[in-house]
Amino acid sequence: MRAPAEQFLTLRAYGAPPVVVALAAQGAFRGFMDTKTPLYAVVAGNLVNAILDAIFIFPLGLGVSGAALATVTSEYLAAIILLWKLNNELVLFSWNVIGGDIIRYLKSGALLIARTIAVILPLWLSTSLAARQGPVPMAGYEISLQVWLTISLLNDALALAGQALLASEYAKGNYKQARLVLYRVLQIGGVTGLALAATLFLGFGYLTLLFTDDPAVLDVAQSGVWFVTITQPINAIAFVFDGLYYGVSDFGYAAYSTLFAGVVASAFLLVVAPNFGLGGVWAGLTLFMGLRAVAGFWRLGSKGGPWEIVWSKTD
Predict the structure, then answer these.
(1) Which of 88, 116, 147 is the last residue of a domain?
(2) CA–CA dist 193, 187 (Å, integer)
(3) Is 93 within the bounds of a domain?
(4) Among 116, 149, 156, 237, who pairs with 293 as Cys (CB 3.0-4.6 Å)?
(5) Could you say which DSSP state residue 97 is in?
(6) Structural domain count, the chain
(7) 195-233 as b/e, with b when 16 or more CB fall inside 10 Å?
(8) What's the farthest any 2 CA atoms get from each other in the chain?
(9) Does the pLDDT value for residue 113 go beyond 80?
């Protein structure tokens, strides 16, 4: 498994610049409350990715290298589209540097980088522990994980909408409306998570068949059905809270709470997974998402910070 992984990542690394540019551009569009433009750019990039995958991997025989090249190409396309559209909204390159804004941006950025590392750490660790089980368990684990991530990230749309709406009302001082946004986004997130859980429980077996017809791999993938389904409501709430944190610029708490959840879940994985196999891996990831959701509810009821203003102030 290691040789193809290194081959993939070596080529995939060329996509790092457009990924960073595209993420920054998407953040700018969210500031304008424009969610359509990033959607069109990402859809175009992913469509090209899918088409090139179908050409590079099998007909041209490039295998994992073809997958990497297809992904890198799509990332450059998405970044170019976003920059082209963003150029119509603001000046992309300017020599006028505002020191205070740069420092504030770097401070917030450093907190979010710490949060991102905390999110990725348990995923890195779970992948490493699953890989040590052998190629068949690893393949089954990866199928379950990809289904889990894909469906879970549907909830990210709620986080983006909540972030934009809450930030707008919070900045205007419309705290009553901000509270309404908070309630509605959490309610919709919970209902969406339950609906996704039910859908996955009924259709998970059919989804796994899209990846492979190997009976041994399918058996392993099916062992993750409870993890994939049960965690959907938890994931929905956790992702929604991410958007709410950003909407009121609560970057510090977002970083520290996620770091705490990541460290606890990683320690759990190191202790439990070697003894319980993939069951321990699923349990560790469930703990990680559960702690993030609990941290969100705790923050809403805590004193201090931006949330106290939302609860105490009236329009």
Answers:
(1) 88
(2) 10
(3) no
(4) 237
(5) -
(6) 2
(7) ebbeebeeebeebbeebeeeeebbebbebbbebbbebbb
(8) 64
(9) yes
